[in-house]
Amino acid sequence: MSDPTLPTRAGFVALIGEPNAGKSTLTNRLVGAKVSIVTHKVQTTRARIRGVAMEGQAQIVLVDTPGLFRPRRRLDRAMVAAAWGGAADADIVVLLVEAHRGLTPGVEAILERLGDLRKGTPVALAINKIDRVKAESLLALTEALNARHEFERTFMISAERGHGCDALKAWLGESLPEGPWLYPEDQIADLPLRMLAAETTREKLTLRLHQELPYELTVETESWQERDDGSARIDQIVYVARDGHKGIVLGRKGETIKAVSTAARAELEEFLGRRVHLFLQVKVRPNWLEEAERYSEMGLDFKDGA
């Protein structure tokens, strides 16, 4: 509950970690609404999607960064640069580590770079998916990680089930700097609606196609028209890298793209609270991974991938 006698606090919290560590799930848990796409494929978060969580008089702006991994392609490098950029600009950084995977080479690499953050930036450790391991191994992992870096606090959480998330949220709220709120209280994400709509469709494609789906796929909202009856017409393009991929996305007699469109439309209607007319087109662009325009649509910097 907010207390008007207390000062307001606000600031940015960057969630960092390996792909699939649970950053998107934790963002959605803390915000209390679905703002970041969650799938069982790694590297699904591309842009720095922000969710706004309220905790008493504090406004916590969550920067949900792409997972940190060893980049091979331009898109990978741009995503990793966005993740470290989000951490560098944040008031607080939270490192998420999966309890059952422990101290992987990827986590080791992240720990090595934590020292590069701005001096004085508090870094908390959140060990996620604690329901998957025994208490003894949790204790050993906590000690091993804290021996590598001086964390402000360590939290044991399950982002999916909510365990420990209230304690983390309370600590974030009280640790942010005093100052006016950065967003209106009822605004949960600063991602432009066009990009949010594209992310929603991309999530549905990822869920529908599982392993068939190559990473060389992106969705852009080409146009957004407000209609007189209060509904919105949204036209989107699904870009794929090869002709063969187009057939996979369309499906037999177009059934895959129809199912994706139906699922995305339903979620957008729920989010926007009004009717949505969603139209999808699939286009082959062999070199979209090398086009600067595609990166800016995803909120990434093309130059970061060089």
From TrEMBL:
Family: Belongs to the TRAFAC class TrmE-Era-EngA-EngB-Septin-like GTPase superfamily. Era GTPase family.
Positions of the UniProt region annotated as G4: 128-131
Domain named Era-type G: residues: 9-178
Keywords attached to this entry: Cell membrane, Cytoplasm, GTP-binding, Membrane, Nucleotide-binding, Ribosome biogenesis, RNA-binding, rRNA-binding
InterPro entries from the UniProt entry: G_ERA_dom (IPR030388), GTP-bd (IPR006073), GTPase_Era-like (IPR005662), KH_dom-like_a/b (IPR015946), KH_dom_type_2 (IPR004044), KH_sf_prok-type (IPR009019), P-loop_NTPase (IPR027417), Small_GTP-bd (IPR005225)
Protein name: GTPase Era
Assembly description: Monomer.
KH type-2 domain sequence ranges: 209-286
UniProt membrane topology term: Peripheral membrane protein
Positions of the UniProt region annotated as G1: 17-24
Binding site residues for GTP: 17-24, 64-68, 128-131
Subcellular location: Cytoplasm; Cell membrane
Pfam families reported in the protein's UniProt record: KH_2, MMR_HSR1
Region span, G5: 157-159
Name of encoding gene: era
Gene Ontology cellular component annotations, sorted alphabetically: cytosol; plasma membrane
Span list, region G2: 43-47
Region spans: G3: 64-67
